Structure formats: C-alpha cells, structure tokens
Amino acid sequence: MDQAALKESPLVSVVIPCYNHAQYLPKAINSVLNQSYSEHEIIVIDDGSSDNTKDVCLKFPEVIYIHQKNAGLSAARNTGIKHAKGEYLVFLDADDWLVPDGIKLNLSFIVKNSKIAFVSGGHKIYYEPDDKSWLIQKKPNNNTYLELLKGNFIGMHATVMYSQWVFKKLKFDTTIKYCEDYDLYLKIAKSFPVLHHTNIIAVYRIHDNNMSSNYHKMLRYALLILSKQKKLKLSENEKSALKYGQDFWKSYYSKKTYNHLIHQLYETNNTLNIQEIKSLKRHNSKLYKAFKLEKKEYQKTLKNNYRTKKIKAPTFMQLLRTIKNKLKYKKSNSIKVNLGDFNRTTPFSTQFGYDRGGPIDRYYIESFLSENANKIKNNVLEIGDNTYSLRFGGSNIKKSDILHIDDKNEKATYIGDLSDAPHVPSNNFDCVILTQTLHLIYNYKAAIETCYRILKPGGALLLTVPGISHIAQDQWGEYWLWSFTKASITKILQEYFPEKNITTNTYGNVLVSSAFLYGLGLPELNQEQLDYNDPHFQLIISASAIK
C-alpha cells in the first residue's frame, strides 16, 4: 500500500454472520484482531443461534454484537451492511479465518482506484478431518464478468473486499438460499470494474458440519442465477461463456452429488436422498447410470456375503476424488481395471485446471519457489512477469525487473528473446526466475547461457520446466517445442554451471500426472496424493543453479 493511502487509514468493516457456529467463532474473531492493518471494526450478526454465540462475542469487547431472528445468510449479511461504518466491507464466515495480512493486501489493491467495486484474492482450503490444506489461486483473464459466467473462480467470499458505495446500489438477494455470493459477484461485475489477484487472503475450513452439503440444491440455484443473467443483454462471447458455465455447474455438482450418494449407500445401508437421485438423473445421465450400477453391485455384495452389518464406507477424501480407479478381482486372479471417469478419450478440461480450482502443476512450482525464497533477493529478473518475485521475495527485493518478448508489454523493463538478449547487462542479477518458459524457446541452451551470463557470481537461477503435459490449445501451442526430464535439465545446466552448484528435483506420480493430463484442478486431489513423489512420473522438473 502506498504511503498516502496508509495515512488515510480507511476503516474496514468485517461482518461475521454466525448461526450455531460458536465453537469456531473465536478463531474468526482473533484472525481479524491480529491483522497487520488495525483500522477495522468487527460486527457479528447472530442469525438466531441456539448455541452460546452471544457469550462468545461478549468475551471480545472489540466486537459489535447484533442479534436477529433466523432469516438466513443473505439477510444476516444485509444486516451487517446496515450497521457497518467502514469505507470497505469484508464478509467472513464464522468457521473460517483471515490470514494476518489479508485486509492489508486487499486494501493495497482497492485504494488505488475508487471506481473498483470489489477486489478478490486467493485462499487456502483446510480439510479439518485429515489436517490437510492446499492453495486455490485462480488467475482469470481481464474480463472478470466473462470468467464468472463460466464459474465462480473466486470460490471463497472472505477473499472479497467490497467498496461500501456498491451496497447503495445492490444487496444480497434474500430469496436465494444458496450461491448468493456468486449472484452478487455477477451483478457487480456486469456493471462495475472489479479486480482479482492471487495473494492468499483467507482460509476456508471444511469440517464435519459443512462437508455434506445440499449439492443438488446448490446446482439448482447456480443454474437459476445464470438464467437471470441470460435475461440481460449479452454479447456473443458472454452467451458462449454462460453456456459453458451451465455445463460446468452441471458437471461439478453432479460429481459431488454422485459421491454423496455413494457415501450414503455405504454409510446408511441404502437410505438415499431421492432428490439427489432425481437431480443426478436430470443433469448427468452418465453418472446416474454409474450410480445405478454401483448400487446394484452393493446389493449383490450384501446378498452374496449374507452381511448384516454395514459395509465400511470410503473416507470422505476418497469420495472427493473424481478419479475412481477401483480394482475388481476375479476368481481367475486376473485383474480387471474399472476405468470409471477415466473411460473417455477427451479430457475434462483443456485449460490446465484453471477452470476447476487451479492448475495442479502450480502447486509444485510454488512449493519449489517457497523452499528457495531465501535466494530471491536484491536484484531479481523474472521472465514474463514479476508475480513470483514479489510474492516469494517480498521485502528482500531491492529491484524487480521483467524480461518479456512482447514490446507491447508496458511492465517489462527488458524486451527480447532470452536466447538472444545481449542488451541485458552481464553480472547484474542476484536471482533469475524462469518458470514454465524454457520449453517455448527453440534455442534453449542459449537461454540458459544468457541466464548464467547475467547472474552475478553467487547468483541463483530458479528454473521449472514441464515434463508430462498436454500441449496448450491457446496461442502458446504453436510455440510448445520441448519436453524435459531431470536428466536432460541436469545435463543442460552442467554445460554452464558448476556441477556441485546444481540441484534438480522432480514432482509428481502416476495419479497426479493422469489427473493433470485429464484437466483436473488442484482441489480435486488431496495433500497425500500431491506430495507422494515417483521420479518415474515427472510432471514438473525444478532446478536451482548457483553461478
């Protein structure tokens, strides 16, 4: 945030609606009290709770406590808007929390332009039962409304900071019981400028009380919300995006409904939600047929084994997997593989998972950079943009430069091809960050030679390259020239850097690589699956090389 904005210190109102979530509320409140930005107020809207929500709030003198009869989440948020005094508003659910710099980060973006209606950022998902977490950092294109028509890439409401003036024009629709935040995003983005970044703002907690959601109802409301947009005057691109969004929500929630039904089948001995079955039949006939077969197999197993006890249900994380790769054994000892959702010749997505919660490969790239953040310091050059430099180098960076091949890029400090860049000064940088670019450069050896030349003695090249990947289907596809392995990257680097100064690693396994090729997103895999490393399946190769 610039100094002028810091001096103004605008008040930020954090509204926390709460309905019987008293047990989680202290962490949410403390996450606001512990913010690095201190000019805020906390308003808890007790939406008719029957637990000790009030008692919890009274322990915090900083909290403005407001009780109302139970009216639903949208009504509670509107009540918060009514009582908020801040120039900017944040809505934090009682079972989630903000990261320490969450308010400051969002504020640094929104204060730059008074016309921005809201700014949103990335978030972390915390899966409480297994104590696991993963990052969601979707990076949309510049047309936010178009991207929102395709799906709710924001994902978590607490990552959004609103300008107070927008609520003089719009409120949360109290007739919408699910996806009400998505409805508001679309209304705002259609009429006003909004902004999104990938910095982590908040943590979304998945726990026993919220994991069994009403997916069929959420699907119904998501489609209803898009149907309202359909009535507006839309461009051809917007109409196409809306159609894409309708298909996306049907696929997304049908998978969750299917998994929930399977969970019910095993957990409740065939006591099933009829509305969920009807929704699955209506919106995804393939999954409906798969469920019928699974149900038949379950009933057959019960009969053949004379079971009177429940069959042990799969864990919830297993049910979250969209890749169902169950092995069935025959008496002949041969193994028949049930391909499940993999039994198709086309991927689920061709956008590297950006439309399904974020790319899987970014998890490894960012883990590598995080582990080497101490090398990102002083004078840093990043190829393409400086997002990673600023994120992982932070205050350790004295000067951040960008090399870009397109002379129309106004942010670039150097224009040119990395393999032919004599104008970039030698022995100048303490760190060069080159992620997911080397495969696009025909003379990749010359590019590595340039990196070595422009680094100061003791400077670090931080490099990542794709190993296993499909070819991009956008403009980059025609420039996608190479695929690398750990062995090839090591050999290439050894031509310029001392062997003892080179550290290479691989990331991935057969499941993760298959999921990436099929276009699955990061949230569709759990931490254990992501962190298991099999060097025979090299999804990403990373290298740190010191001059």
UniProtKB/TrEMBL annotation:
GO molecular function: transferase activity
Transmembrane segments: none
One Pfam family hit: Glycos_transf_2
Superkingdom, natural source: Bacteria
Location of the Glycosyltransferase 2-like domain: 13-169
Sorted UniProt keywords: Transferase
CDD domains to which the protein is assigned, alphabetical: AdoMet_MTases
Name assigned to this protein: Glycosyl transferase family 2
Organism field: Neotamlana nanhaiensis
